[in-house]
Specification:
Structural class: alpha/beta
Helix content: 25-40%
Number of strands: 14
Length: 586
Protein backbone atom coordinates (compact mmCIF):
# COMPACT_ATOMS: atom_id res chain seq x y z
CA UNK A 1 0.00 0.00 0.00
CA UNK A 2 1.15 3.53 -0.76
CA UNK A 3 0.08 6.78 0.85
CA UNK A 4 0.30 10.31 -0.50
CA UNK A 5 -0.07 13.95 0.36
CA UNK A 6 0.34 15.06 -3.23
CA UNK A 7 -3.16 14.82 -4.69
CA UNK A 8 -3.36 15.87 -8.36
CA UNK A 9 -5.03 19.24 -8.90
CA UNK A 10 -6.67 20.71 -12.00
CA UNK A 11 -4.06 22.17 -14.34
CA UNK A 12 -6.32 25.01 -15.48
CA UNK A 13 -9.80 25.43 -16.94
CA UNK A 14 -8.98 27.45 -20.02
CA UNK A 15 -11.80 29.85 -19.11
CA UNK A 16 -11.20 33.62 -19.71
CA UNK A 17 -10.50 34.63 -16.10
CA UNK A 18 -8.37 37.59 -17.26
CA UNK A 19 -11.51 39.57 -18.15
CA UNK A 20 -12.64 39.62 -14.49
CA UNK A 21 -11.30 41.48 -11.47
CA UNK A 22 -11.47 40.63 -7.81
CA UNK A 23 -14.16 42.61 -5.99
CA UNK A 24 -11.71 44.10 -3.50
CA UNK A 25 -9.63 45.42 -6.41
CA UNK A 26 -12.64 47.34 -7.73
CA UNK A 27 -14.10 48.48 -4.40
CA UNK A 28 -11.52 48.19 -1.59
CA UNK A 29 -13.09 47.54 1.82
CA UNK A 30 -10.63 47.61 4.70
CA UNK A 31 -11.88 47.41 8.28
CA UNK A 32 -9.00 45.99 10.35
CA UNK A 33 -10.75 46.71 13.68
CA UNK A 34 -13.98 44.99 12.68
CA UNK A 35 -16.11 43.92 15.63
CA UNK A 36 -18.75 41.72 14.00
CA UNK A 37 -16.79 38.39 14.14
CA UNK A 38 -17.07 38.34 17.94
CA UNK A 39 -20.79 39.16 18.01
CA UNK A 40 -23.71 36.72 18.08
CA UNK A 41 -27.31 37.04 16.96
CA UNK A 42 -29.61 37.11 19.99
CA UNK A 43 -32.92 38.37 18.57
CA UNK A 44 -34.82 38.58 15.32
CA UNK A 45 -34.47 41.65 13.10
CA UNK A 46 -37.30 43.66 11.65
CA UNK A 47 -38.51 41.83 8.56
CA UNK A 48 -39.74 43.43 5.36
CA UNK A 49 -41.30 41.23 2.69
CA UNK A 50 -40.81 42.42 -0.86
CA UNK A 51 -42.60 39.42 -2.41
CA UNK A 52 -45.22 41.65 -4.00
CA UNK A 53 -42.69 44.05 -5.51
CA UNK A 54 -39.17 42.69 -6.04
CA UNK A 55 -40.40 39.10 -6.08
CA UNK A 56 -43.31 39.84 -8.40
CA UNK A 57 -41.37 41.87 -10.97
CA UNK A 58 -39.00 38.92 -11.51
CA UNK A 59 -41.69 36.39 -12.41
CA UNK A 60 -42.12 35.00 -15.90
CA UNK A 61 -45.80 35.84 -15.50
CA UNK A 62 -46.34 38.53 -12.83
CA UNK A 63 -49.10 37.89 -10.33
CA UNK A 64 -52.60 38.97 -11.21
CA UNK A 65 -54.58 40.85 -8.51
CA UNK A 66 -56.08 37.64 -7.11
CA UNK A 67 -52.67 36.01 -6.65
CA UNK A 68 -51.24 39.21 -5.19
CA UNK A 69 -54.04 39.32 -2.65
CA UNK A 70 -53.51 35.66 -1.76
CA UNK A 71 -49.79 36.33 -1.19
CA UNK A 72 -50.54 39.46 0.85
CA UNK A 73 -53.01 37.58 3.05
CA UNK A 74 -50.42 34.84 3.63
CA UNK A 75 -47.79 37.37 4.70
CA UNK A 76 -50.23 39.01 7.12
CA UNK A 77 -51.24 35.64 8.62
CA UNK A 78 -47.61 34.72 9.11
CA UNK A 79 -47.03 37.92 11.06
CA UNK A 80 -45.05 40.21 8.77
CA UNK A 81 -45.54 43.84 9.82
CA UNK A 82 -43.74 45.55 6.93
CA UNK A 83 -44.77 44.56 3.40
CA UNK A 84 -43.67 46.21 0.17
CA UNK A 85 -46.73 45.90 -2.03
CA UNK A 86 -45.71 47.41 -5.34
CA UNK A 87 -44.52 50.21 -7.59
CA UNK A 88 -47.81 52.13 -7.95
CA UNK A 89 -46.48 54.73 -10.36
CA UNK A 90 -45.37 52.02 -12.80
CA UNK A 91 -48.84 50.98 -13.96
CA UNK A 92 -52.53 51.44 -13.29
CA UNK A 93 -52.67 47.77 -12.28
CA UNK A 94 -50.12 48.29 -9.50
CA UNK A 95 -51.84 51.50 -8.38
CA UNK A 96 -55.25 49.80 -8.28
CA UNK A 97 -53.90 46.88 -6.25
CA UNK A 98 -52.49 49.25 -3.64
CA UNK A 99 -55.85 51.02 -3.37
CA UNK A 100 -57.75 47.72 -3.23
CA UNK A 101 -56.10 46.76 0.05
CA UNK A 102 -57.58 49.88 1.66
CA UNK A 103 -60.94 49.66 -0.08
CA UNK A 104 -61.33 45.98 0.85
CA UNK A 105 -60.29 46.65 4.46
CA UNK A 106 -57.58 44.00 4.05
CA UNK A 107 -54.88 45.81 6.01
CA UNK A 108 -54.53 45.38 9.80
CA UNK A 109 -53.72 48.65 11.53
CA UNK A 110 -50.39 47.34 12.83
CA UNK A 111 -49.08 46.48 9.33
CA UNK A 112 -47.06 49.07 7.44
CA UNK A 113 -47.24 48.91 3.67
CA UNK A 114 -44.34 50.18 1.59
CA UNK A 115 -44.27 51.39 -2.01
CA UNK A 116 -41.24 52.04 -4.23
CA UNK A 117 -40.46 55.04 -6.39
CA UNK A 118 -37.66 56.55 -8.40
CA UNK A 119 -36.55 60.14 -7.85
CA UNK A 120 -38.84 61.77 -10.42
CA UNK A 121 -41.52 64.30 -9.41
CA UNK A 122 -44.42 62.83 -11.39
CA UNK A 123 -43.67 59.33 -10.10
CA UNK A 124 -43.39 60.49 -6.51
CA UNK A 125 -46.67 62.40 -6.73
CA UNK A 126 -48.49 59.34 -8.08
CA UNK A 127 -46.82 57.09 -5.49
CA UNK A 128 -47.93 59.23 -2.54
CA UNK A 129 -51.42 59.53 -4.04
CA UNK A 130 -51.76 55.74 -3.82
CA UNK A 131 -51.26 55.93 -0.03
CA UNK A 132 -54.09 58.35 0.84
CA UNK A 133 -56.09 56.97 3.77
CA UNK A 134 -53.74 54.16 4.78
CA UNK A 135 -53.08 53.89 8.55
CA UNK A 136 -49.35 53.15 8.12
CA UNK A 137 -47.35 53.68 4.94
CA UNK A 138 -43.75 54.12 3.84
CA UNK A 139 -42.38 55.57 0.62
CA UNK A 140 -39.20 53.84 -0.48
CA UNK A 141 -37.01 56.13 -2.62
CA UNK A 142 -33.96 54.88 -4.48
CA UNK A 143 -31.31 55.93 -6.95
CA UNK A 144 -28.25 54.06 -8.16
CA UNK A 145 -24.95 55.21 -6.67
CA UNK A 146 -22.31 52.73 -7.89
CA UNK A 147 -19.61 53.96 -10.33
CA UNK A 148 -20.67 51.77 -13.25
CA UNK A 149 -24.23 53.11 -13.01
CA UNK A 150 -23.11 56.71 -12.55
CA UNK A 151 -20.73 56.54 -15.50
CA UNK A 152 -22.36 54.09 -17.93
CA UNK A 153 -26.09 54.26 -17.28
CA UNK A 154 -26.81 57.80 -16.06
CA UNK A 155 -23.69 59.77 -17.08
CA UNK A 156 -23.75 61.55 -13.73
CA UNK A 157 -20.95 62.56 -11.38
CA UNK A 158 -21.00 62.24 -7.62
CA UNK A 159 -22.59 65.62 -6.96
CA UNK A 160 -25.37 65.04 -9.50
CA UNK A 161 -26.09 61.66 -7.92
CA UNK A 162 -26.31 63.22 -4.46
CA UNK A 163 -28.55 66.01 -5.74
CA UNK A 164 -30.92 63.46 -7.27
CA UNK A 165 -31.27 61.81 -3.85
CA UNK A 166 -31.78 65.19 -2.17
CA UNK A 167 -34.38 66.22 -4.74
CA UNK A 168 -36.34 63.00 -4.34
CA UNK A 169 -36.35 63.31 -0.56
CA UNK A 170 -37.64 66.89 -0.72
CA UNK A 171 -40.32 65.84 -3.19
CA UNK A 172 -41.46 62.91 -1.02
CA UNK A 173 -41.78 65.24 2.00
CA UNK A 174 -43.67 67.86 -0.01
CA UNK A 175 -46.10 65.38 -1.55
CA UNK A 176 -46.71 63.63 1.79
CA UNK A 177 -47.46 66.94 3.48
CA UNK A 178 -49.78 67.95 0.64
CA UNK A 179 -51.68 64.68 0.15
CA UNK A 180 -51.66 62.70 3.41
CA UNK A 181 -53.73 63.45 6.48
CA UNK A 182 -53.23 62.80 10.17
CA UNK A 183 -54.81 59.37 9.79
CA UNK A 184 -51.59 58.15 8.15
CA UNK A 185 -48.43 57.36 10.11
CA UNK A 186 -45.89 58.08 7.39
CA UNK A 187 -42.40 56.64 7.03
CA UNK A 188 -39.49 57.19 4.68
CA UNK A 189 -36.93 54.72 3.33
CA UNK A 190 -33.95 55.50 1.17
CA UNK A 191 -31.77 53.05 -0.75
CA UNK A 192 -28.47 53.89 -2.41
CA UNK A 193 -29.08 51.24 -5.06
CA UNK A 194 -26.13 48.94 -5.82
CA UNK A 195 -24.69 49.88 -2.42
CA UNK A 196 -22.38 46.87 -2.50
CA UNK A 197 -20.47 48.35 -5.47
CA UNK A 198 -20.57 51.93 -4.20
CA UNK A 199 -17.44 53.46 -2.66
CA UNK A 200 -18.06 53.37 1.07
CA UNK A 201 -17.20 57.04 1.64
CA UNK A 202 -19.61 58.04 -1.13
CA UNK A 203 -22.39 55.76 0.18
CA UNK A 204 -21.97 57.44 3.56
CA UNK A 205 -22.04 60.90 1.96
CA UNK A 206 -25.25 60.20 0.03
CA UNK A 207 -27.04 58.83 3.09
CA UNK A 208 -25.96 61.81 5.19
CA UNK A 209 -27.24 64.19 2.49
CA UNK A 210 -30.62 62.46 2.50
CA UNK A 211 -30.79 62.59 6.30
CA UNK A 212 -30.00 66.30 6.26
CA UNK A 213 -33.22 66.77 4.30
CA UNK A 214 -35.39 64.27 6.20
CA UNK A 215 -34.02 65.29 9.64
CA UNK A 216 -34.44 62.04 11.59
CA UNK A 217 -35.06 62.51 15.30
CA UNK A 218 -37.12 61.06 18.12
CA UNK A 219 -40.41 59.93 16.57
CA UNK A 220 -39.10 60.55 13.04
CA UNK A 221 -37.20 57.43 12.01
CA UNK A 222 -35.47 56.97 8.68
CA UNK A 223 -34.88 53.58 7.10
CA UNK A 224 -31.53 53.44 5.29
CA UNK A 225 -31.54 50.33 3.16
CA UNK A 226 -28.20 49.03 1.87
CA UNK A 227 -28.72 46.58 -1.02
CA UNK A 228 -26.35 44.04 -2.42
CA UNK A 229 -28.31 44.58 -5.62
CA UNK A 230 -26.02 42.14 -7.39
CA UNK A 231 -24.15 39.96 -4.91
CA UNK A 232 -20.50 40.26 -5.93
CA UNK A 233 -18.53 39.90 -2.69
CA UNK A 234 -18.11 37.26 -0.04
CA UNK A 235 -20.39 37.67 3.00
CA UNK A 236 -17.55 38.85 5.26
CA UNK A 237 -16.83 41.76 2.92
CA UNK A 238 -20.50 42.78 2.93
CA UNK A 239 -20.43 42.59 6.75
CA UNK A 240 -17.45 44.97 6.79
CA UNK A 241 -19.39 47.40 4.59
CA UNK A 242 -22.40 47.27 6.90
CA UNK A 243 -20.31 47.72 10.06
CA UNK A 244 -18.54 50.70 8.50
CA UNK A 245 -21.88 52.37 7.76
CA UNK A 246 -23.34 51.51 11.17
CA UNK A 247 -20.33 52.97 12.97
CA UNK A 248 -20.00 56.13 10.90
CA UNK A 249 -23.58 57.25 10.19
CA UNK A 250 -24.63 60.22 12.32
CA UNK A 251 -27.98 60.14 14.13
CA UNK A 252 -27.59 56.36 14.34
CA UNK A 253 -30.17 56.01 17.11
CA UNK A 254 -32.85 57.30 14.73
CA UNK A 255 -31.88 55.02 11.83
CA UNK A 256 -33.29 51.60 11.02
CA UNK A 257 -30.30 50.17 9.16
CA UNK A 258 -31.67 47.74 6.61
CA UNK A 259 -30.08 45.27 4.18
CA UNK A 260 -31.47 43.85 0.94
CA UNK A 261 -29.29 40.87 -0.05
CA UNK A 262 -29.53 39.08 -3.36
CA UNK A 263 -28.27 35.58 -4.00
CA UNK A 264 -26.13 35.84 -7.15
CA UNK A 265 -23.20 34.01 -5.50
CA UNK A 266 -25.47 31.66 -3.54
CA UNK A 267 -24.58 33.28 -0.22
CA UNK A 268 -27.53 35.62 0.33
CA UNK A 269 -28.50 34.01 3.63
CA UNK A 270 -24.92 34.16 4.95
CA UNK A 271 -24.62 37.80 3.87
CA UNK A 272 -27.83 38.68 5.72
CA UNK A 273 -26.79 36.88 8.90
CA UNK A 274 -23.32 38.46 8.97
CA UNK A 275 -24.95 41.84 8.29
CA UNK A 276 -26.99 41.38 11.48
CA UNK A 277 -23.75 40.78 13.38
CA UNK A 278 -22.37 43.94 11.79
CA UNK A 279 -25.22 46.16 12.97
CA UNK A 280 -28.16 45.76 10.60
CA UNK A 281 -31.58 46.16 12.23
CA UNK A 282 -33.81 45.09 9.36
CA UNK A 283 -33.79 42.61 6.46
CA UNK A 284 -35.70 42.77 3.19
CA UNK A 285 -36.34 39.57 1.25
CA UNK A 286 -38.84 37.13 -0.22
CA UNK A 287 -40.37 33.82 0.80
CA UNK A 288 -38.50 30.92 -0.81
CA UNK A 289 -35.96 33.37 -2.23
CA UNK A 290 -38.01 34.72 -5.14
CA UNK A 291 -36.60 37.76 -6.95
CA UNK A 292 -34.47 38.91 -9.83
CA UNK A 293 -31.93 36.47 -11.33
CA UNK A 294 -31.05 34.02 -8.54
CA UNK A 295 -33.48 35.72 -6.17
CA UNK A 296 -33.66 37.82 -3.04
CA UNK A 297 -32.58 36.39 0.27
CA UNK A 298 -35.02 33.72 1.49
CA UNK A 299 -36.97 35.03 4.49
CA UNK A 300 -38.18 31.54 5.39
CA UNK A 301 -34.65 30.15 5.61
CA UNK A 302 -33.47 33.14 7.64
CA UNK A 303 -36.38 32.86 10.05
CA UNK A 304 -36.03 29.13 10.61
CA UNK A 305 -32.26 29.45 10.97
CA UNK A 306 -32.99 31.69 13.96
CA UNK A 307 -35.61 29.24 15.22
CA UNK A 308 -33.07 26.40 15.07
CA UNK A 309 -30.87 28.43 17.43
CA UNK A 310 -33.64 28.94 19.98
CA UNK A 311 -34.44 32.48 18.81
CA UNK A 312 -38.08 33.39 18.15
CA UNK A 313 -38.25 34.69 14.56
CA UNK A 314 -41.49 36.53 15.29
CA UNK A 315 -43.03 34.90 12.20
CA UNK A 316 -45.25 31.80 12.15
CA UNK A 317 -43.56 29.07 10.11
CA UNK A 318 -45.55 26.23 11.71
CA UNK A 319 -47.03 25.06 8.38
CA UNK A 320 -44.28 25.21 5.77
CA UNK A 321 -46.27 23.11 3.29
CA UNK A 322 -49.10 25.66 3.26
CA UNK A 323 -46.55 28.46 2.83
CA UNK A 324 -44.91 26.64 -0.05
CA UNK A 325 -48.22 25.77 -1.73
CA UNK A 326 -49.33 29.40 -1.58
CA UNK A 327 -46.02 30.78 -2.86
CA UNK A 328 -45.91 28.22 -5.68
CA UNK A 329 -49.50 29.06 -6.65
CA UNK A 330 -48.92 32.80 -6.59
CA UNK A 331 -45.57 32.77 -8.39
CA UNK A 332 -46.31 29.77 -10.63
CA UNK A 333 -42.80 28.55 -9.82
CA UNK A 334 -41.95 25.34 -7.96
CA UNK A 335 -39.66 25.16 -4.97
CA UNK A 336 -36.64 22.91 -5.26
CA UNK A 337 -37.05 19.59 -3.42
CA UNK A 338 -33.80 20.54 -1.66
CA UNK A 339 -34.98 24.01 -0.52
CA UNK A 340 -34.00 24.43 3.15
CA UNK A 341 -36.78 23.54 5.59
CA UNK A 342 -39.54 23.43 2.96
CA UNK A 343 -38.39 21.15 0.11
CA UNK A 344 -40.04 17.77 -0.41
CA UNK A 345 -36.84 15.89 0.46
CA UNK A 346 -35.29 17.90 3.29
CA UNK A 347 -36.59 15.60 6.06
CA UNK A 348 -36.00 12.45 4.03
CA UNK A 349 -32.95 10.22 4.19
CA UNK A 350 -32.06 7.80 1.43
CA UNK A 351 -28.98 6.44 3.18
CA UNK A 352 -29.39 3.37 5.36
CA UNK A 353 -26.77 4.59 7.81
CA UNK A 354 -28.54 7.94 8.09
CA UNK A 355 -31.86 6.20 8.65
CA UNK A 356 -30.33 4.08 11.38
CA UNK A 357 -28.78 7.08 13.14
CA UNK A 358 -32.05 9.00 13.04
CA UNK A 359 -34.01 6.00 14.31
CA UNK A 360 -31.63 5.69 17.27
CA UNK A 361 -31.85 9.43 17.85
CA UNK A 362 -35.65 9.27 18.06
CA UNK A 363 -35.43 6.35 20.49
CA UNK A 364 -33.00 8.24 22.73
CA UNK A 365 -35.17 11.34 22.62
CA UNK A 366 -38.29 9.38 23.55
CA UNK A 367 -36.53 8.09 26.65
CA UNK A 368 -35.64 11.65 27.70
CA UNK A 369 -39.11 13.01 26.93
CA UNK A 370 -40.73 10.19 28.93
CA UNK A 371 -38.44 11.02 31.83
CA UNK A 372 -39.56 14.65 31.57
CA UNK A 373 -43.18 13.63 31.96
CA UNK A 374 -43.92 13.75 28.24
CA UNK A 375 -42.99 17.43 27.87
CA UNK A 376 -41.36 17.71 24.42
CA UNK A 377 -40.24 21.28 25.08
CA UNK A 378 -38.35 20.26 28.22
CA UNK A 379 -35.83 18.26 26.18
CA UNK A 380 -33.33 20.01 23.91
CA UNK A 381 -33.58 18.89 20.27
CA UNK A 382 -30.48 16.82 19.45
CA UNK A 383 -30.99 14.39 16.59
CA UNK A 384 -28.56 13.21 13.91
CA UNK A 385 -29.15 14.78 10.48
CA UNK A 386 -32.23 16.77 11.56
CA UNK A 387 -31.44 20.36 12.61
CA UNK A 388 -35.04 20.99 13.71
CA UNK A 389 -38.00 18.85 14.71
CA UNK A 390 -40.00 18.44 11.48
CA UNK A 391 -43.23 18.47 13.52
CA UNK A 392 -42.54 22.09 14.53
CA UNK A 393 -43.04 23.15 10.92
CA UNK A 394 -45.88 20.78 10.11
CA UNK A 395 -43.76 17.97 8.70
CA UNK A 396 -42.73 14.46 9.75
CA UNK A 397 -39.63 12.37 9.15
CA UNK A 398 -40.13 9.73 6.52
CA UNK A 399 -37.32 7.38 5.46
CA UNK A 400 -37.46 6.55 1.76
CA UNK A 401 -36.45 2.90 1.51
CA UNK A 402 -34.43 1.45 -1.34
CA UNK A 403 -36.47 -1.46 -2.55
CA UNK A 404 -33.69 -2.89 -4.71
CA UNK A 405 -30.25 -2.13 -3.37
CA UNK A 406 -28.71 -3.25 -6.64
CA UNK A 407 -30.72 -0.95 -8.88
CA UNK A 408 -29.03 2.26 -7.85
CA UNK A 409 -31.93 4.21 -9.34
CA UNK A 410 -33.97 5.42 -6.40
CA UNK A 411 -35.86 2.52 -4.87
CA UNK A 412 -39.64 2.63 -4.80
CA UNK A 413 -40.14 5.53 -7.21
CA UNK A 414 -37.71 4.06 -9.70
CA UNK A 415 -39.40 0.64 -9.78
CA UNK A 416 -42.91 2.11 -9.96
CA UNK A 417 -41.85 4.29 -12.87
CA UNK A 418 -39.89 1.64 -14.73
CA UNK A 419 -42.26 -1.31 -14.29
CA UNK A 420 -45.65 0.37 -14.05
CA UNK A 421 -45.29 3.78 -15.75
CA UNK A 422 -46.37 5.63 -12.61
CA UNK A 423 -44.62 8.95 -11.99
CA UNK A 424 -45.66 9.55 -8.42
CA UNK A 425 -45.46 13.05 -6.88
CA UNK A 426 -42.63 13.34 -4.37
CA UNK A 427 -44.81 13.48 -1.27
CA UNK A 428 -46.73 10.41 -2.46
CA UNK A 429 -43.36 8.67 -2.95
CA UNK A 430 -42.55 9.39 0.68
CA UNK A 431 -45.95 8.17 1.90
CA UNK A 432 -45.87 4.96 -0.15
CA UNK A 433 -42.27 4.26 0.86
CA UNK A 434 -43.41 4.24 4.48
CA UNK A 435 -46.06 1.65 3.60
CA UNK A 436 -43.44 -0.46 1.83
CA UNK A 437 -41.16 -0.12 4.83
CA UNK A 438 -43.88 -1.55 7.07
CA UNK A 439 -44.17 -4.50 4.67
CA UNK A 440 -40.43 -5.20 4.70
CA UNK A 441 -40.34 -4.88 8.50
CA UNK A 442 -43.09 -7.52 8.72
CA UNK A 443 -42.03 -9.97 6.02
CA UNK A 444 -38.35 -9.13 5.51
CA UNK A 445 -36.33 -9.47 2.30
CA UNK A 446 -36.24 -7.34 -0.79
CA UNK A 447 -39.31 -6.48 -2.85
CA UNK A 448 -39.54 -7.03 -6.59
CA UNK A 449 -41.69 -5.05 -9.01
CA UNK A 450 -44.60 -7.53 -8.93
CA UNK A 451 -44.82 -7.51 -5.13
CA UNK A 452 -44.45 -3.76 -5.07
CA UNK A 453 -47.41 -3.41 -7.43
CA UNK A 454 -49.56 -5.62 -5.22
CA UNK A 455 -48.75 -3.48 -2.18
CA UNK A 456 -49.55 -0.34 -4.15
CA UNK A 457 -52.81 -1.68 -5.62
CA UNK A 458 -54.05 -2.94 -2.26
CA UNK A 459 -53.39 0.47 -0.69
CA UNK A 460 -54.53 2.90 -3.38
CA UNK A 461 -56.65 0.97 -5.88
CA UNK A 462 -59.26 -0.71 -3.70
CA UNK A 463 -61.20 -2.28 -6.59
CA UNK A 464 -58.63 -5.07 -6.83
CA UNK A 465 -56.26 -3.95 -9.57
CA UNK A 466 -53.86 -6.82 -8.93
CA UNK A 467 -54.52 -10.60 -8.84
CA UNK A 468 -55.10 -12.23 -5.49
CA UNK A 469 -56.38 -9.11 -3.71
CA UNK A 470 -59.83 -8.56 -2.27
CA UNK A 471 -61.87 -5.50 -3.09
CA UNK A 472 -62.37 -3.05 -0.22
CA UNK A 473 -63.51 0.53 0.34
CA UNK A 474 -66.82 2.22 1.05
CA UNK A 475 -67.20 3.88 -2.36
CA UNK A 476 -66.73 2.71 -5.93
CA UNK A 477 -67.33 4.73 -9.09
CA UNK A 478 -69.76 3.25 -11.62
CA UNK A 479 -70.95 5.90 -14.10
CA UNK A 480 -70.16 9.57 -14.60
CA UNK A 481 -71.15 12.33 -16.95
CA UNK A 482 -70.08 15.96 -16.90
CA UNK A 483 -71.42 18.86 -18.94
CA UNK A 484 -70.84 22.60 -19.25
CA UNK A 485 -73.18 25.00 -17.45
CA UNK A 486 -71.41 28.20 -18.48
CA UNK A 487 -67.84 29.42 -19.09
CA UNK A 488 -66.92 28.91 -15.44
CA UNK A 489 -69.04 26.00 -14.20
CA UNK A 490 -69.76 22.36 -15.00
CA UNK A 491 -72.56 20.00 -14.00
CA UNK A 492 -71.83 16.45 -12.82
CA UNK A 493 -74.08 13.40 -12.79
CA UNK A 494 -72.56 10.18 -11.43
CA UNK A 495 -73.38 6.86 -9.82
CA UNK A 496 -71.42 5.36 -6.93
CA UNK A 497 -71.80 2.31 -4.82
CA UNK A 498 -71.86 3.15 -1.13
CA UNK A 499 -71.06 -0.06 0.74
CA UNK A 500 -72.55 -1.92 -2.22
CA UNK A 501 -75.72 0.20 -2.56
CA UNK A 502 -76.04 2.13 -5.82
CA UNK A 503 -76.34 5.88 -5.21
CA UNK A 504 -76.76 8.78 -7.65
CA UNK A 505 -74.93 12.05 -7.03
CA UNK A 506 -75.31 15.45 -8.70
CA UNK A 507 -73.38 18.66 -8.21
CA UNK A 508 -72.04 21.78 -9.91
CA UNK A 509 -68.53 23.13 -9.63
CA UNK A 510 -65.80 25.18 -11.26
CA UNK A 511 -64.42 21.98 -12.81
CA UNK A 512 -65.01 18.22 -12.78
CA UNK A 513 -62.98 17.58 -9.62
CA UNK A 514 -64.55 20.51 -7.76
CA UNK A 515 -68.02 19.24 -8.70
CA UNK A 516 -67.18 15.68 -7.65
CA UNK A 517 -65.82 16.82 -4.27
CA UNK A 518 -68.94 18.94 -3.74
CA UNK A 519 -71.11 15.91 -4.48
CA UNK A 520 -69.41 13.94 -1.70
CA UNK A 521 -70.67 16.46 0.85
CA UNK A 522 -74.06 14.71 0.73
CA UNK A 523 -72.39 11.84 2.60
CA UNK A 524 -71.41 14.23 5.45
CA UNK A 525 -67.76 14.15 4.36
CA UNK A 526 -65.51 17.19 4.52
CA UNK A 527 -63.17 16.72 1.54
CA UNK A 528 -60.67 19.30 0.27
CA UNK A 529 -58.19 18.72 -2.55
CA UNK A 530 -54.74 20.07 -1.61
CA UNK A 531 -52.69 18.93 -4.59
CA UNK A 532 -53.38 17.23 -7.92
CA UNK A 533 -51.33 15.88 -10.80
CA UNK A 534 -51.91 13.57 -13.73
CA UNK A 535 -50.10 11.94 -16.64
CA UNK A 536 -50.61 9.44 -19.45
CA UNK A 537 -49.24 6.00 -18.71
CA UNK A 538 -48.74 5.10 -22.37
CA UNK A 539 -49.67 6.13 -25.90
CA UNK A 540 -52.20 4.82 -28.35
CA UNK A 541 -55.91 4.00 -28.48
CA UNK A 542 -55.88 1.86 -25.34
CA UNK A 543 -53.73 4.27 -23.29
CA UNK A 544 -54.59 4.82 -19.65
CA UNK A 545 -54.05 7.85 -17.46
CA UNK A 546 -53.04 8.12 -13.81
CA UNK A 547 -54.29 10.82 -11.46
CA UNK A 548 -52.92 11.65 -8.02
CA UNK A 549 -54.80 13.62 -5.38
CA UNK A 550 -53.60 14.85 -2.00
CA UNK A 551 -56.73 15.54 0.02
CA UNK A 552 -57.85 16.50 3.49
CA UNK A 553 -60.71 14.16 4.44
CA UNK A 554 -62.38 15.13 7.72
CA UNK A 555 -59.10 16.74 8.72
CA UNK A 556 -56.86 13.81 7.77
CA UNK A 557 -54.40 14.34 4.92
CA UNK A 558 -54.10 11.35 2.60
CA UNK A 559 -53.17 10.58 -1.00
CA UNK A 560 -55.38 8.84 -3.51
CA UNK A 561 -54.64 7.35 -6.92
CA UNK A 562 -56.92 6.69 -9.87
CA UNK A 563 -56.22 4.87 -13.14
CA UNK A 564 -58.61 4.92 -16.09
CA UNK A 565 -58.71 5.35 -19.84
CA UNK A 566 -60.47 8.68 -19.16
CA UNK A 567 -58.38 11.27 -17.33
CA UNK A 568 -61.55 12.75 -15.84
CA UNK A 569 -62.70 9.40 -14.46
CA UNK A 570 -59.16 8.76 -13.23
CA UNK A 571 -59.37 11.96 -11.19
CA UNK A 572 -62.72 10.90 -9.67
CA UNK A 573 -61.20 7.54 -8.78
CA UNK A 574 -58.23 9.30 -7.15
CA UNK A 575 -60.59 11.30 -4.93
CA UNK A 576 -62.50 8.11 -4.02
CA UNK A 577 -59.19 6.39 -3.28
CA UNK A 578 -58.23 9.16 -0.84
CA UNK A 579 -61.66 9.10 0.82
CA UNK A 580 -61.70 5.31 1.15
CA UNK A 581 -58.21 5.29 2.64
CA UNK A 582 -59.14 7.97 5.16
CA UNK A 583 -62.28 6.06 6.18
CA UNK A 584 -60.41 2.73 6.24
CA UNK A 585 -58.22 3.94 9.08
CA UNK A 586 -61.09 5.21 11.22
Amino acid sequence: MKTTSNVPRPAGSGMPTVKYRAFLDTNPVDLPDRQWPSKRITHAPRWMSTDLRDGNQALIEPMDPARKRKMFDLLVRMGYKEIEIGFPSASQTDFDFVRSLLEDDALPEDVTISVLTQSRPELIERTVESLIGFPRATVHLYNATAPVFREVVFHADREQTIELARFGTREVIAQAERQLGDETIFGFEYSPEVFIDTERDFALEVCEAVMDIWQPQEGREIILNLPSTVERATPNVFADQIEYMSRNLSRREHIALSVHPHNDRGTGVASAELALLAGADRIEGCLLGQGERTGNVDLLTLGLNLFSQGIDPGIDFSDVDEIRRTVEHCTQMEASPRSPYVGDLVYTSFSGSHQDAIKKGFAARKTKVDAAGGDENAVVWELPYLPIDPHDVGRSYEAVVRVNSQSGKGGVAYLMSRAHNLEMPRRLQVEFSRIVQRHTDTYGGEINAETLWKIFADEYLPTSAAPGLQSWGRFELRKSQVGTVDDEHVELHAELTDNGALTAIDANGTGPIDAFVSALHQFDLDVRVLDYSEHAMSQGRDAKAASYVEAAVDGKIVWGVGIDSSITRASYKAVISAVNRALRDQ
